[in-house]
Amino acid sequence: MTGKSCVKSIEGRISSLKGIVSIKVSLEQGNAIVKYVPSVLSLPQVCCQVEDMGFEASIAEGKADSWPLRSLPALEAVVKLRVEGMTCQSCVSSIEGKIGKLQGVVRVRVSLSNQEAVITYQPYLIQPQDLRDHVNDMGFEAVIKNKVVPVSLGQIDIGRLQSAYSKTPSTLNQNVNNSQTLEQQGSHVVTLQLSVDGMHCKSCVRNIEENISKLPGVQNIQVSLENRTAQVQYHPSYVSPAALQKAIEALPPGNFKVSLPDGAEGSGTDNRSSTHHSPVPAQRTQVQDACCTVVLVIAGMTCASCVQSIEGLISQREGVQQISVSLADGTGTILYDPSVINPEELRAAVAEMGFEVSIASDDPGNHVGEHSVANSTAQTTTGMPVSVQVVARHGGGPPKIHSSGLSAKSPQASTTVTPKKCFLQITGMTCASCVSNIERNLQKKAGILSVLVALMAGKAEVKYNPEVIQPLEIAQLIQDLGFGAAVMEDYTGSDGDIELIITGMTCASCVHNIESKLMRTNGITHASVALATSKAHVKFDPEIIGPRDIVRIIEEIGFHASMAQRNPSAHHLDHKMEIKQWKKSFLCSLVFGIPVMGLMIYMLIPSNEPHESMALDHNIIPGLSILNLVFFILCTFVQFLGGWYFYVQAYKSLRHRAANMDVLIVLATSIAYAYSLVILVVAIVEKAERSPVTFFDTPPMLFVFIALGRWLEHVAKSKTSEALAKLMSLQATEATVVTLGEDNSIIREEQVPMELVQRGDVIKVVPGGKFPVDGKVLEGNTMADESLITGEAMPVTKKPGSTVIAGSINAHGSVLVKATHVGNDTTLAQIVKLVEEAQMSKAPIQQLADQFSGYFVPFIIIISTLTLVVWIIIGFIDFGVVQKYFPIPNKHIAQAEVIIRFAFQTSITVLCIACPCSLGLATPTAVMVGTGVAARNGILIKGGKPLEMAHKIKTVMFDKTGTITHGVPKVMRVLLLVDVATLPLRKVLAVVGTAEASSEHPLGVAVTKYCKEELGTEALGYCMDFQAVPGCGIGCKVSSVEGILAHSEHLSERATHLNGVGSVPMEIDITPQTFSVLIGNREWMRRNGLAISSEVSDAMTDHEMKGHTAILVAIDGVLCGMIAIADAVKQEAALAVHTLKSMGVDVALITGDNRKTARAIATQVGINKVFAEVLPSHKVAKVQELQKEGKKVAMVGDGINDSPALAQADVGIAIGTGTDVAIEAADVVLIRNDLLDVVAAIHLSKRTVWRIRLNLVLALIYNLVGIPIAAGVFMPFGIVLQPWMGSAAMAASSVSVVLSSLQLKCYKKPDLERYEAQAQGRMKPLTASQVSVHIGMDDRRRDSPRATPWDQVSYISQVSLSSLKSDKLSRHSTSADDSGDKWSLLLNDRDEEQFI
Hints:
- By secondary structure, the chain is an alpha+beta fold.
- Strands 34-46-45-44-35-42-43-47 form an 8-stranded mixed sheet, sandwiched between helices. A 6-stranded antiparallel sheet has the order 26-25-27-33-28-31, with no helix packed on it. The chain has a 6-stranded antiparallel sheet with strand order 36-41-40-39-38-37, sandwiched between helices.
- The radius of gyration is 44 Å and the shape is elongated.
- The protein is built from 50 helices and 47 strands.
- Its EC number is 7.2.2.8.
- This is Copper-transporting ATPase 2.
- It is a multi-pass membrane protein.
- Pfam families: E1-E2_ATPase (PF00122), HMA (PF00403), Hydrolase (PF00702).
- It comes from Myotis myotis.
């Protein structure tokens, strides 16, 4: 402490703690005097709180005032816990560390080999269940091996014990007085001698004496170790010999065997029956006759503490012999002495505590009588059965019997509460251990009947008792665990809904039979059968009944039922309709458009004599030439057949008050067509000498180009739905459902289609098979390939209790799985849904041409209208101008008509010349050339949108496995730990390679591959007695490796050197050796009795910090090597990341792998921001989050787990060697598996977009020049635009745009040398502190905290460090960072699903 502020902050913080009475801190003396309540808080806890503030605190020796408890003999008990899931010494030390700190724990010893913990504790401060829960909360599975609390202690006795030891000596004296009064009341004392086997020493004697003497009714006990006997003096009215036998046998360590002397069991029962029948000592009967029972109905109790407080307070009242309160039934049963207290006083006493109380029975005597009928076989006088009840209560009879006797009496208890179901949305779950954490903790709470949590959907389904707990309280419980939770009010849950095809129905009565039978079945909520279609639609509750049961019910009536096949191809995302429409549109336009283009070219050819008319210009009838007739016929077909879909799109666009490209095209073509038709009809009517120049050639040309562009675009888009088809194909089609017998033996097996598998089914999965549903393993051990979800190629250990994922592959063990999620609730179905939603929600980018036409359409219409109005005004003011430039074919036409006709012609010419032909071509041509160039360079771009979008990318997110890294493990380093002379490296490699060749584990495959490469051979030695222990390692015997070594030339010299023989190795007489080999992690070596030196352990930890997996090799019982294996980073990854950063793009790493590996990889490639331990849904959410900030995001991935994010991102980029699903979901595919192609794709996009813009500018310039000429602005200067000139200019602009696009063909992808030259001297690997790691969707950083000057001065204990980290960390594992083993990259030693 340095100043007053330190004093204030310590006093403020500590005084706020529960159990602190007062605190006084002295700065001068450097101490604090604390008054506290030890039953609430312990001194070490106070010290921890002070240390968390950054100070050092310790208890001053001998200064702690003795609390009355200290004077009592220490009441200690021992409990043994079976602890599953410990893999290494650090698990042991973390359990011992955490449990040792708990208040009430005296000693704790954890054994890794026996997988158990032996804990000595003080039962008045902590209970075995609490100890078990604490161990469970650390991520292990703990089970109490023996019950320590003697079976005969009832609620009231525990209450008395607690009040005896946790209050003050005065209460103790009261209890002594109580027992004296009992003795005075005079139940006689019986002495019983028991023979006790299994005692070893004095501590066993003490254990029995201390625990049994505390039982109610036991007056004295003496245990003899020599004679193996126990002499007990007890009151038979309170305890029976059988109960004493049970109590001693239940004591830890659980191996005492007690036998009663001959006739003692009888004597025990005789004792009891004598209490019923024989007139035992008079005083005793008096006591019983004097006692009565009353049942109180208590409303308002919410938890166990209410029960305890009522029992504690009422039991202390004079005249109360015994009280038992039931929370579930809402009743309290009190045995009392009516001469001292009456029922009304008891009711008032409970009511004073704030509960609503009523007396269930007014006639206590009568009640006891009834009670005796319920509870005792011997029915005698009313008073008698009271003792039976006491015996039942104290003699170990379960209290449930007691309350069942009441239920008939208490009106409230008789109504059974129907459980309710609620659904909660949970955020913040990152892995399977989060799921088990939530399920385990909720199931401990009173009132919660069942919990089912879906990781991917982020939903929990909870069945609860509405009288005990409410959904909002459940949500609060989940929030207390560190997750976000909200009750889904309107969510009905996944009610089953199936469609069946029923054959064999003949008439309406069949329909009625089926419907009525189904509706009578429990669990079916709706059933409707249609005779005409032979279909039935059934809704049901999947918890009560399943599809298979429904089919069976229908078949029992005599019909045949099967699931209606849903058509997988009928999907809203496959664009089949659009492709068909645009293809039809294009082909139709093409058929009629080619002749039109031919005619246009023919027209453009100038004739030799200017005034000589062409053959096609000859009139068929006055005013109608052959050319115009052909044009009209062809154009009409194109306009209404080829252009129909454009009209539909334009109508939709106008309905939304937007003007896109379609509106402009429809406007231009319709006006050109209508105008041409009108002037042609007018010419025919007027019998004009020459046929007028029409614009019939515009629509076909325009429609051909644009329909082609649209068709190709939709073909590219349709590829996205193939991703879903591929995903669906991962689902198993059938499941082997088994029926289990009582001893869990398989009675029968049947093959069931996937649709008929229901929740709760037990499914057998054979090695190599797919897991058909999400579920929990019931029996068997195996490894599962879960790359589907995590993207990590490493198999995950599965053992009973582990969760499995539908679609993942079972590696090498046969297992039984209980289905928890089926159908649309499986993880795979959730991924399909994510991909669908991402593809649906992806905002289509508004193409540049569309944006352009948004402004261009209104502009042209305004100009056109202006032209019309202006020329009408000019015409009426000065008709001469019109006459000069508009020769009238017929003299009889009125002047006004001429003016209007001329004004119309100019305004239509404006519209036609502004025809968006070049605008329409600007984008598709550039995109076609761009995608072609990209494909030539190994980049497949699906359509124009990704190509247009890529240049706007501001953030690129990389997946790790298979994207930044190769996705397969490689040996990084082999360290020899013995002298080369005794065991050469090549011999070690030959032995290890042979041993690992029998392993299916990817690590084993990597080691074997490396050994073969190093030895330069494909042949290996002979391996026998092979055994693999999932999560640990392998063991075997290896022989015949000499042959491999003899092949090598290198070895010849070494062999001669070692043997001292100068002959060729082949001639050496080598006796074949057999080596005993062990390969695995630290735990595997320890299990096999091999010590690991600190140097080796440090070397392993070094590699593990880099994200490598380090395994040890022992040959013939000697630790001789360490092999470091890792998923190696691609060579070009760092350069690609650097180049992207230099282009101003943010780069992030997003992976399902653990934080340590993610950080190690990020530092190597230079990525500053890392998201680790993320689910597929988190990846999508992360992309959406960035998109909401207005950033354009590219996602680069290769796995099924990346596919939803690839679909959601503005540009999804898949690695060509990745999964089919990812490739289908992405917009861009990198065929060459080269990350520099990500840079190239963005580079090419920039070029293409620049070219598109240039095309638009060319088109625009042509329009800007052409429109004023068409509008007649330059008429005074003699520049007049004839309509055919307009057509020619239009063709020229289109050609110029196409030529401009073709120049993209000259694009060359920047090569590696160029990138390296740019990055020369600038690329530096990052340090760990420069990388920020975020876990799951949690945006708080999980960095290694930087050292402040204060940290350097003071030693930070593990406790204060863990408090610096986020609270949520604890839900993954308390000691997440303790040991490298646990978080190693590829072989998590703990059950790996904890850290998916």
